[in-house]
Amino acid sequence: MSKVSSENLHKSTLSVYSHLMEQFNPGLEKLVALGNSYVKAFQALAVCSEAYFSAVAKMGDQALHTLSSHSLGDVLIQISETQRRLTAEMEGVFQWFQVEVLQAMEKNIKLDEEYIEGSRRVYELEVRNQAEALEKQLRRGAYRDSLENSDYMIYLRQSQQEILKEEERRYRFLAEKHCGLTQSLLFLVNKTGTSLQQKADGWKEKVNETRGSRTPNHLDQEVQLRGSVGSLLQTVARDEDMSWARREQLALGGVPSRAPSPLPNRSRSSSVGESLGLGGGRPMRALVSHPSSSNPKLLPFSRGETVTVLVQEP
Questions:
Q1: φ, ψ for residue 307 (rounded to 5)?
Q2: pLDDT tens by residue, 270-280
Q3: Residue 144, C-beta contacts closer than 8 angstroms, at least 6 positions apart
């Protein structure tokens, strides 16, 4: 019975050594390789994230300069900035993971391989020596105590307990490192979670507010276009009036005259304006083109063309 017990102890101890050398350490090496790939994948993700949210910020900047979507542009810019800060925080977590977990595991693998191999050689050598010494004592009849209390059995039991502790210590190391990773992620969530939730709620509220807001319709755009064209033509009219005044003063020697202008376009436009209840037409040179496709209700003209502006009399 003692012989069977000693064999079981010995086989159990050797199986733990084999497990550490053939399964645990290779598994740890695989974890390191996968972890490095994980870090590289996140780094690539961070680069893509930066490019994407920079583009989002540009779209938001475009919206800031529109009449309809200023508040939406502000939301897009804030979302972009928040996401970029969050990515930077995550980069810090991954740097910690690479140094404190992956590099530590890689270092322990190399040291552990030498330690486990050396420890197993010492164990197997000591087991042979203890077994040979016990066998000699039994042959001579010099050993009278129970085999359970022999130095051989005591050594087997102690060796088994020691290697089990070594096995536990390695798995504890692995668990502690990943507990640290979880704590780092939890710290980041607690740091940013509440404020991010508040910001997200605020952004959603701003977006929903725009659903009920009045956006410029076709009539608004037409009025705006008329106002822009009218303002431009009024500016040109003032310049033309000053030019006519100078020409008339030169032609008449500064003497006031009630004679009609010799310009045919000016007299014809005046008669048309009078028939429509408008003041005399003023020929002006257009600074910009106005194609017929932009607004069918206004006559088309090209840049540099002379047009007549009819001003309604008060």
A1: -120, 160
A2: 444 444 445 55
A3: none
